Amino acid sequence: MIRSNYYTFKILRYDAKDPLREPYFQSYHVKVVSGLTVLSVLNRIRDEIDGTLAFRASCRSAICGSCAMVINGKIDLACRTQVATFESDTVILEPLPNFEVMRDLVVDMTPFWEMYEQVQPYLIRESAVPEKEIYQSEKDRKKIDQFVNCILCACCYGACPVIADEPGYLGPAAAAKLERFILDSRDERPADSLESVNTPKGVWACRTVFRCIDACPKDVRPTDAIVNLRKNLVKNRFNMILGSKKK
Amino acid sequence: MLYHDILVVGGGLTGLRAAVGLCDHYNVGLVSKVYPVRSHSIAAQGGINAALTNNPESKDDSWEKHTFDTIKGSDYLGDQNAIEIMCKEAIKIVYEMEHWGCPFSRFPDGTIAQRPFGGAGYPRTCYSADLTGHSLLNTLYERAVAKGVKIYPEWFVAALCVEDGQCHGIIAQDTHTGAYVPVSAKCTFFGTGGYGRVYQHSTNALINTGSGIGMAYKAGVPLKDMEFVQFHPTSLIGTNILMTEGCRGEGGYLINNKGERFMKNYVPHFMELAPRDIVSRSIQTEINEGRGFEHPLGKYIQLDLRHLGKEKILDRLPGIRHICIDFIGIDPILEPIPIMPSQHYSMGGIDVNERAASEAKGFYAGGECSCVSVHGANRLGGNSLLETIVFGKLAAKAILEDLEKQDLKPNEKALLALKDSVMKKIHRLTQPGGERPYTITTELGEVMNDKVGIFRTKSELAEALEKVIELKDRYKNVSVSSAVLHMNYELQSAIELEFMLDCAHAITLGALLREESRGAHYRLDFAKRDDESWLKHTIARIGPDGDPVISYKDVVITRYQPMERKY
């Protein structure tokens, strides 16, 4: 429900290139109609009111993952959040937590991509390349469904309490990406490739508090991935010991 | 100055595929104004065409039949040699993407699933639920990460350097620091996407400004067939978010306010699966003649999926359902989706040949920013994802061959001079007191929407042209709020606005001059196709005053003589 014709948007402003100036909230009064999204309000503010406002946006249909931010205390994509869903006519916008702010709502995503790259986020094959497709049953394809849906928006990374305490933690999205390949019937990575996440800052750092699942706009469950990766690590360890006994 | 042997601009499917094909041989840099996975390729939903014959109903399909469907769909404006290459290559490309990990949906026998799409004689559209672009783009990005492609994310390109018929590189900005840097390269490949944002109602991402097309034009590279603009039949009312053709491919109905499947009155044989230009005109006609539905966000037609059942919708169209729930509060399992046609795709673009090469030595382009032409006057659904990957791959091959034959030496002086002119332009745009860019962007979108849309007439096109010229004039007095260079998105928009205006000018002038109806270009005052006078490509080249000068070029016809396009 639209609560009034004009809403107040309080947006956290900061510029890392001007560090002497403390972060501050700036208020904008914007006329709203039913069906308007937070992203369309942001666009209007930048176009018509304050051209200096910095935020990321691209697809405006919740598939590109650009516009993750904190909206009235909840992490979500600005493009898929309807202004009318809030209890009040004030909307507070802050940058995604667990990242350095570069300017206003734009954060430095570098650590997120570093973790992504660390898990070898690509299909690894040993077998010869077939002439046609590598067969995959419908059932096997379904197994990777939810992890394939990840749009790398970093909502989960921003919501994760472990990252706040332990910089350098792998984080939920990278774990979900790794699990996407582990579960893929076509992937043939060696079992020891999981060792890169078998560290105190890898999958063992997760405290399974499920904030990532709450924050995900695409119904991905990164905690499931982490729990499963742990199981695989234990299983591999067990196999290794059994294997060495045989010798 | 930065140096690369080869520079790729654009982190979408075509740019990534080109970079992956080149990085083992040369020092490649890929510049993208967003993180590559944010590129607009991500938003493609329905699928990618290839005659794999996996569907039990497509056992007789072949790349030749795919070629014919594409030529007919193009209303015979597509170059047949290029279309043959693309459709033959399609099969290899889809298998290659699968081998690289693309999570295609599957048939019960474990092969890649294929669904029917508009204008195709067989179900040949390979898909990954309704997130095919997302799946393909992630796969190619993963491949680029695996191969260690050097990527400059969130680097914005402001100008292309072409002098004496040769391309020398670009002027780019690291948006994080604000620094403008000339980047020298022997070869430059553009995969910069379409110009959808020139229109008020578009399915396209906000980043689709057509800046790459405008930049090439400014640098003297000609554009081709810009008047051919695709309007997708089914976009969600209000936001104009794409509702994939896969909705109809899976069996969805289009319904008017009489409760009729009105496509039976237009194309009874193909019904909802006629090509896009025809379905869009049919929907618009229903709305114009009072058989649409009323909504505060505009008049609409219903896209009804309910009879497909919950299971099929959840399995094949989960993304569509998600979008409908998030953006309009409708669950398509329970209610029809309110849709309207809106701008979707640019058939026209930078004039390149079947090797993705432009007339400027060392400058290549692929994907939506280019015009090979494989889509002619109307693109078939499922052929754009195909084009991006095929011509990314073929461009890489062409660049390797060309550099093998002749090593190119970029002219650094030309790059430095171009950087000066970019800095001068920025200096002008950051002087206070001028008109803010958004007013011009808004008026441009409105006039293109109202007067260069699905149905066109001479008088409206002439009015639109006059308006575009007025807006170009007003642009000379545009200024932005702040002179800060880093992450100044308003300044970026102001720079891109100039390129948008150039695109709009070429589209409108081409449409005004083309006195016939062909594919997506429909003139109410010239309702017939006229092969005698108009079976030719429109070429728009920048003139001395900055305005486009129009000439024409023959269509390549190999095996298929133009026939009446009947469905």
Key features of this structure:
heterodimer; A: 247 residues; alpha+beta; Ubiquitin-like (UB roll); Fumarate Reductase Iron-sulfur Protein, Chain B, domain 2; 2 domains; 5-stranded mixed β-sheet; two-stranded antiparallel sheet; elongated; B: 567 residues; alpha/beta; FAD/NAD(P)-binding domain; Flavocytochrome C3, Chain A, domain 1
Note down, in words, how this protein is organized.
The complex is a heterodimer of chains A (247) and B (567). Chain A has 247 residues and is an alpha+beta fold. Chain A folds into two domains: 6-106, Beta-grasp domain (Ubiquitin-like (UB roll), Roll); 110-246, Alpha-helical ferredoxin (Fumarate Reductase Iron-sulfur Protein, Chain B, domain 2, Orthogonal Bundle), CATH 1.10.1060.10. Helix content of chain A is 33%, strand content 14%. Chain A contains nine helices and seven strands. Chain A has helices at residues 38-49, 110-118, 138-143, 145-148, 155-159, 161-165, 172-182, 211-215, 222-246, and strands spanning 6-13, 24-31, 68-71, 74-77, 90-94, 101-103, 106-107. In chain A, the strands form two sheets. A five-stranded mixed β-sheet of chain A has the order 2-1-5-3-4. A two-stranded antiparallel ribbon of chain A has the order 6-7. In chain A, a hairpin with a 2-residue loop joins β6 and β7. In chain A, α2 (110-118) packs parallel to α7 and α7 packs across α9 (222-246). The longest helix of chain A is centred in the last third of the chain and has 25 residues, at 222-246. Chain A is elongated, with a radius of gyration of 21 Å. In chain A, 47% of the residues are buried. With 567 residues, chain B is of the alpha/beta class. Among the domains of chain B are: 2-189 and 355-364 and 380-413, 3-Layer(bba) Sandwich (FAD/NAD(P)-binding domain), CATH 3.50.50; 234-341, Flavocytochrome C3, Chain A, domain 1 (Alpha-Beta Complex). In chain B, 36% of the residues lie in helices and 18% in strands. Chain B contains 15 helices and 19 strands. Chain B has helices spanning 13-22, 63-73, 80-99, 132-146, 211-218, 246-249, 276-288, 310-316, 318-328, 383-405, 412-429, 437-451, 458-475, 489-513, 531-534, and strands at residues 2-9, 28-32, 48-49, 114-115, 125-126, 150-153, 155-163, 166-174, 180-190, 223-224, 229-236, 253-255, 301-304, 337-346, 349-351, 363-365, 370-371, 536-542, 548-554. In chain B, strands 1, 2, 6, 7, 8, 9 and 16 form a seven-stranded mixed β-sheet that branches. Chain B starts with a strand and ends in a 13-residue tail after the last strand. The model of chain B has no long low-confidence stretch (mean pLDDT 97). Classes of the chains: A alpha+beta (247), B alpha/beta (567). The interface between A and B is large, with 60 and 63 residues.
